[in-house]
Amino acid sequence: MMRSMLTWPQRWLPPVLAAFMAVTPTTPQLCPQDKTPMTATGNTRQENGKMLAEYKCEQGHLYWVAVD
């Protein structure tokens, strides 16, 4: 059996990028309280069959946003 000639980045990078893109919305998120831009913290969770991503604004407000 012949081993794949792909290096580890070639094997792991596409699925990792696909997962990241799946949990990153394409529209910028704004804080509902002060309307400042929010950035993703990288934390995710499943709730009621929905994927949620945690976002934080400059003022420190945290929100879970549905991404699918």
- Structural class determined from secondary elements: alpha+beta
Low-pLDDT stretches: none
Alpha-carbon distance between the two ends: 39 Å
Give the count of helical stretches. 1
Largest sheet: 3 strands, antiparallel
What strand line-up does the widest sheet have? 1-2-3
Q: What's the average pLDDT?
A: 80
Percentage of residues in DSSP E strands: 25-35%
Shape: elongated
Radius of gyration based on Cα positions: 16 Å
What is the H/E order?
A: HEEE
Structure report:
About 25% of the residues lie in helices and about 35% in strands. The mean pLDDT is about 80. The termini are far apart. Strand 1 (about 40-45) and strand 2 form a beta hairpin. The chain has one helix and three strands, in the order H-E-E-E. It has a three-stranded antiparallel beta sheet, with no helix packed on it. It is elongated, with a radius of gyration of 16 Å.
Secondary-structure blueprint of this entry?
Blueprint: H1 8-23, E1 38-47, E2 50-57, E3 62-66
Antiparallel strand pairs: 1-2, 2-3
Quick summary:
The chain is α+β, with helices and mostly antiparallel strands. It contains 1 helix and 3 strands.
Keyword list:
single chain; 68 residues; alpha+beta; three-stranded antiparallel β-sheet; 1 helix; 24% helix; elongated
